[in-house]
Amino acid sequence: MTQCLDFTVAIPTYNGESRLPELLERLRNQLYTEQLSWEIIVVDNNSTDNTARVVQAYQENWQCPYPLKYCFEPQQGAAYARKRAVEEAKGRLIGFLDDDNYPVLDWVVKAYDFGQNYPHAGAYGSQIHPEWEVEPPENFQRIAPFLAITERGDLPLQYEMKKKLLPPSAGLVVRRQAWLESVPNQPILTGRVSGKMLTGEDLEMLSYIQKTGWQIWYVPDMEIYHKIPRWRLQREYLIPFFRGIGLSRYVTRMVNITPLARPIAFLAYMINDLRKIVLHVLKYRRKVNNDLVTACEMQLLLSSLISPFYLWKNGYFKIDKKSSLNSTS
């Protein structure tokens, strides 16, 4: 019988050789975990750099009572990496950290304690502070949450399904039982890969967990710092990034809507998207093209409008028979 642990830290990474050392050092120095049984798993998502060698070097000198493990996931995409992490994990709770997420020194124990105190929480997200390489534009706070920056105050908050708001996967803890009960074996959205910016795989996963009755929470005591390099604030990155978010939205919008209601919801979303586009143009006029933040918002609105047509045309609805969203496209 496989031994169950209290907690697993899972690190999906792609070409993370330069970012992993700081994260592994933060995890090696976690405080107040003496009474916990836990582990760290690095999931190498088809890296082409020296990620494997970096982890191996740490393993050779690892003096901690909790193990540092490595596994290779050849199918590229964050959804595949997280699925592999769940398969490999022995922890009842699985905390996901991206390789540019740096937790404070009591993150593990805070994450474990919340899971113990809130047994109906299927997933819960951290308070995420930005660590900018360069300062963003003044109006960047309008789109900052899309870069996994989550500062929602100092009290725990439950995400309500009707508000259609969910935490990012950075610093997210998932109860393994909730994942196994809720998440389809083959999701529609698999995450960004080279040449394709379609995202939303984390929101699809969380939508399924919420749909089956598990609670989703924001936990401010679980603090991490998200290092954001200068290139992630440039137009060349941000416009395709927001296009990818928008193009995935039909999937995440429809998970919690019954099949019979989806045609009505489809029309309602289209009308609302058109309304938002018109209001955005009227409000910002020339800034729609000239101002980076306004252009990103416009790209998100336009891509959300065409999302169902894009997904249908590119065959995404043929991938996942379990979720059956293809019947409403």
Task: Provide structural commentary.
There is one protein chain. The chain is an alpha/beta fold and 329 residues long. It has two domains: 5-233, Alpha-Beta Complex (Spore Coat Polysaccharide Biosynthesis Protein SpsA, Chain A); 253-328, no CATH class. The chain has helices spanning 20-28, 51-60, 78-88, 107-117, 176-182, 201-211, 235-247, 249-254, 262-284, 287-290, 292-313, and strands spanning 5-13, 38-44, 68-72, 91-96, 101-103, 121-132, 157-158, 172-175, 215-228. Helix 7 (235-247) crosses helix 11 and helix 9 (262-284) packs antiparallel against helix 11 (292-313). The N and C termini lie far apart (44 Å).
Q: What is the CATH superfamily of the largest domain? A: Spore Coat Polysaccharide Biosynthesis Protein SpsA, Chain A
Q: Tell me the number of strands.
A: 9
Mean pLDDT value? 93
Q: What is the CATH T-level topology of the largest domain?
A: Spore Coat Polysaccharide Biosynthesis Protein SpsA, Chain A
Major sheet description: 9 strands, mixed
Q: How many discrete structural domains?
A: 2
**Total of helices:** 11
What share of the residues does DSSP label as strand, in percent?
15-25%
Highest-level CATH class of the largest domain: Alpha Beta
Please give the CATH architecture of the largest domain. Answer: Alpha-Beta Complex
Briefly note the structural class of the backbone: alpha/beta
**What spatial form do the alpha-carbon principal axes imply?**
globular
Radius of gyration: 20 Å
Proportion of helical residues: 25-40%
Distance between the termini: 44 Å
Q: Which parts are unreliable, with pLDDT below 50 for 5 consecutive residues or more?
A: 319-324
